[in-house]
Amino acid sequence: MITISKNKGPFFDKVGILVSTVCLLHCMIVPLLYLIFPFALFPFLSSEWVHLTLASLAVPIAIAAMKMGYSKHGSKRPLYIVLLGMLMLWGALLAHDSPWLETIVAVIGAASIAMAHHLNHTLMGKPR
């Protein structure tokens, strides 16, 4: 079981927003780089392990943040949004045969996770 001090909730949301934004930018910029420089190779940026690493970081951060947020504000909305985003982010890995579908699903998933963290952070500042 994860034990987290009560004052770390906003920290996890801020880190979650950062990781989700990095993932979002990665998913958007790498295809654009290939369009602009079609003959250039970006093996580091386009590697599957980058996507796996960012997605793997997002999960424990989101669990910690949503747990803290729910215990403070009692709303399940951020949890539902982050779960949808995680499903999309991980589901994008299954769409690797269609790079554009993978990118679109991953971008929407990462944006959903960032929005869930933002909503969670906002709700934590409001009384129940």
From TrEMBL:
Pfam families: MerC. It comes from the Bacteria. Keywords: Membrane, Transmembrane, Transmembrane helix. One of its GO terms (cellular component) is membrane. One of its GO terms (molecular function) is mercury ion transmembrane transporter activity. The chain crosses the membrane at residues 15-37, 49-66, 78-94, 100-119. InterPro entries: Mercury-R_MerC. This is MerC domain-containing protein.
